[in-house]
## 1
Amino acid sequence: MNERIYMDNSATTQVDERVVEAMLPCFRQYYGNASSVHLFGQDARRLVDDARRSVAALLGADTREVVFTSGGTESDNCALWGAWRAAGGRPGAHFITTRIEHPAILTTCKAMEAAGAEVTYVPADVSGRVDVVAIDEAIRDTTLLISVMHANNETGVIQPISEIVEIARRRGVPIHTDAVQSAGKIPVNVEELGVDMLSLSGHKLHGPKGIGVLYIRKGTKLSSYITGGSQERKRRAGTENVPAIAGFGIAALLASGHLYEMADRVGGMRNRFERHILAQIVGTRVNGDNEAGARLPNISNISFDRLEGEAAVIALDLENVAVSTGSACASGSIDPSHVLAAMGLRPEVVQGSLRFSLSRFTTEAEIDRVLEILDKVVARLRRLRKC
């Protein structure tokens, strides 16, 4: 039986063994409550503090600006609902986001609209970049927050956050960015970006699931989304998930040291992968900006003429290759990719698209094997489609 090959790292990543090793003592030895004052609690607190320093270093942030959450979705919710509540939760409060955001943002915005908020969804162009001018034109006197993802989870296209920040600063509007996909793949520095809030998720950079971070710039007005105890400087109540936090800290530390490898080796494999497909399989194209440095180095979204994406995912899985058609958080939906549709791609292009996402654990041999299998699978499915 052929070895299984995982190329769906945008959905989740394997946990680095060094992360696992860092977490195990939290179950066996350092199991105290990090909010307790005794030695057991102090031992746990040290692990939390160490992790906070590692995450802050990854982001170029102050440790006091790092708030641990249960993941990227909670972080996004905290940013949106927290901004609204800090302003009194008044009806008519206005938010700006984009049509290519992750469901954690889009679904939350729909819920906020149902609760009385107003949301403007700005478009993206065919390259997958959001319209900066449209964001500027959308700002109102009642605008409380702009939320634009740092890099798209389906295409890997990096968004012009710094340009948007300039507009936001000029207009006096805070800005949040979902950096769940970009952190650990490219440098993400909050001072260089200039954002007021930023979301991270541990399981996207070889850390554990169930842990995330919301960076909150000092002075940002934000009400607590989860209330209760005084954990996280009263910004996120709930007993600290010390094992996951400790694991996230190591994952962040490791990610900082692998950024060059992601850009060079992983990016090189991705580029070779794309070149082969475009040269050897007719009727293929890369979805998203193809300029150097315009996309994350590990994501490749490719459309195949005369191919049904879901059928291809199943066929590849039967060959022990894991890929996807888009966001794992949209699984079960029969709707086509909202990201590709928002880019103006034709329905048949959207339906025939696959997302391949690599990690630093992906090997050249795996790339070669996937290309070999993909050639055969696409040819077979196209023949069946003619029948």
## 2
Amino acid sequence: MLERGDVRLLREMISSLLSRFPSLTEFCDRCLRSERWGGSVVLMVVDAALTSSGLNYFTIVVPKVRAFAERVLTRGGVQSLSSLAVIPIENVRDIWRNERQWHVARGIATVLAGIGGDDKEALRRWARASDPTRMREDPIGSIKGVGPVTFHYLRAMGGVDTVIPDRVVKKVINNLLAETGRPPSWRDIDFIRSVEEVAQITGLRRVELCWLAWLMAGEAEKVSSIKIKELLSQL
């Protein structure tokens, strides 16, 4: 537990950082309503599959999702998870060459499509029922290529306010905690507890802290032609 002075310092640091990204709260609202990528669950699954390989999010993943949206959703007419689940990689090889990522995308789409109902409700039903402590017993968590980061990332898009134990998030949050004299937490379970404590102290949601970390990591600054607010509004 942090001392009272450290708690005040942490709140001040987080508040200062958050002021740099005023659109972050609204973006996370949309995330937890499962309304990212214009509400397309297909694109959310594609996003999660690409992110599973640890690619730079803003400069690699985002452009690939956009290319997929143009190539497959707009021109290819693929609008549902059931359609995504059966697309052979040969049909998208020009924009998607990583077969492992494609296996992840199709696997997630197959599981969610099998839940029934519309795609959004299927994603949210899965997310509500998912149990991180039994991830490998979960039909999505057991897919080869799906690790804790992808699992929690997809849960967040399904409406669960969760900690995404990504290496970038760990680095940024641990550096902030180091300012208060707290040792870093690198194991997923320990790190998740640390972020949950920070969320309780600051009043922010877990997903907000994760996205704040990604934005703070400097990746977004490499997209110099797009302002952060404009970028987040498109995701």
## 3
Amino acid sequence: MITPPLPGISNKKTRPVFLLLFVFLFINTPALLGQKNELGVFFGGSYYLGDLNPSRQFAMTRIALGGVYRYNFNPHLSARVNGIFASVEGNDALIKYNEDRNLRFVSRVTELTGQLEVNFLPFVAGNLDTPYSPYIFFGGGVFSFNPQAQLPDDEGRLRWINLRPLGTEGQGNENYPDRELYSLVSSNFLFGIGLKFNISRNITGGLEWGMRRTGTDYLDDVSTTYADLELLPSATTQYFADRSLSNPGQNTGLQRGDPTSNDWYSFAGFVLAFKIKDFTRGKCAAYN
């Protein structure tokens, strides 16, 4: 039986990434119970780069938290699995790249990724004779997102609205047959740099900064041209479709976003990892 691909994810794009993960994570399955294992937490910040923020690093950074599992193949090579929860946001009024467009969004991001880490210096977790090493990492995985924005009610109170079901650029609208509703699950390719160090014989720490190139241009619900407001189904959709300050409702066909470039998001923070005791080797003194 052939499993259908997730909507919005290309098998051709993701196959090489997951092949690398399988090769390096599971090439030596019995060793996964050894002392080369670490479990830990990640905590830091997250931010976004895309149509509302093309280039400002660390702009509008929000909190990111998660868990990590690391397997150390040797002093120079490790593999890691990440499960991270975060949120990202963009605001034309604050970023000022296209202030007149007047759009804003916030999106929760949940990712499951794998990465390979290459240490520049020999580094053994818990060995104080190898105190630290800079490293680079790369990998990929999948993530979910859900862009939202605030809508004022008649009394001026704000409530959060999911933007994807609205089809703010005509997605899912019969008048725009070439614009399908985008998936809220996508793939990513990640890379970054870091510095890991031994805190004690059982605890390692690390500082890192990683970029994620996504497989979607709708992390911010912005991608292509303005739709004709008269063809959109509701006043709520019209409100979020065109919030421009100077000529609202007069932008049909004009550029709202850049469809040639997918969105990015980034994590920067601290990793605290704990060695997992080797229960298997404890059964044989000679093996230790």
## 4
Amino acid sequence: MQCANRIGWVSFWVNLALVVLKITVGVIGGSKACIADGLHSASNVVVAVAIIMSQKISSRRKNSGYHYGYGKIEFLLTGFISFFIISGALALLFLSIKHLVGEPVVSPPHLSAALMALVSIGATEMLFRYMRCAGVQVNSQIILAGAWANRANCFSSVAVLVGVISAKFGYHYLDPVTAILVVGIIIKACYKMLIDSVRALMDYSVNDRYKEEIVGIVSEMPDICSVTNIKTRQIGQRIWVELDILVDPRCSMLEAQKTREKVQARLMERVDDIERVLVNVCPMENEQC
């Protein structure tokens, strides 16, 4: 958990350093691609700030104004990040096509731009793996979005590396062609994150991930005839569950209440992602357990 809490600041400082280095090397070495890659890293600085803001806001306690907490801020900011990256990728696509069909051949950039691209590839790939690991562990969509933002930056640095080296051998067209391919990869990854964040804001079901596990846990408990009508939704990093359990119609109200509490406690204990469970107790009709 501590790893996830500081991930935003780690991403912020790493990407800020990359911005300064890439733009400096790009200006000195005469590489427009390296400067553009520096601007891409600047977008990751914005993403890191969004992660830090999300963690501060979502950690606030529930209050009279927000009875269910601030968990959904994570999906709102994830959607913003995804849209932001897609917009930047489309701008890169436009510039790459323009360069491919119309710009005159210029003198190749200095090899320092290629060295900078290698440093960026290593740094952003390690940051991607670090953030993806933390995001999966705490089930945080915004950290995963930040991870993919850094993976996108890694791909753009690969494009810079290919472009600089190919320019040295006279193949100037490989730079924009590689950039176009990278844009396709970026848009595909970010489109999925954007759709997932919109679905979460609309309380889209996550039964595909949790239903079988919930049914298995509840079904093995005594005094329960069946479990039906399972509903799930994601609130930030946590899951809320509602379900109906069918019990023997001859059991008393007190027994039914105890059974409900046992089901709630068992699910909260066995499924780490669950924050809240609502159990409706229904009698079996015309049957006995």
